[in-house]
């Protein structure tokens, strides 16, 4: 080897206990859901506050009529996020799966429309669109996991 000291990467009982304590901490699940839906909350509120920009965004992606698509986008972003965050507050958590499904389907479709890297020539724009597409697929996977956990835990995900 190179003479460098070896690093023990075996998880210690203390590290495992710390991770368990974080995962068992009541607010952790809510904070994780909040992190997952934060872009949708900000986006929905932003679009409500700047309707002309919301219309321009829809027009930019060729969605007509833009008012219909902007309204649907705002509704999905805010209602979906509210249902994911509501946890046990919304019908005892029975609709967390619906919010996660709304945002997951929305994110998947938005990625197809906004990040169609496969239609672009090689170069930095294609590279950026490809990264954004797969980041969005990661969010879709996160929403699927939220829906699964909510179904198994009656909304406590």
Walkthrough of the structure:
The chain has 157 residues and is mostly helical. The chain has helices spanning 13-24, 27-49, 51-60, 66-86, 96-114, 124-153. α2 (27-49) packs antiparallel against α4, α4 (66-86) packs antiparallel against α5 (96-114) and α5 runs antiparallel to α6. The mean pLDDT is 89.
Shape: flat
Mean pLDDT: 89
- Total beta strand runs: 0
Helical coverage, percent range: over 70%
Radius of gyration: 20 Å
The H/E string reads HHHHHH
State the end-to-end CA separation: 46 Å
Low-confidence stretches: none
Figure out the total of helices: 6
Biggest sheet overview:
none
In terms of DSSP E residues, the strand content is under 5%
SSE class? mainly alpha
Topology record:
Blueprint: H1 13-24, H2 27-49, H3 51-60, H4 66-86, H5 96-114, H6 124-153
In short:
The chain is mostly helical and 157 residues long.
Name the features.
single chain, 157 residues
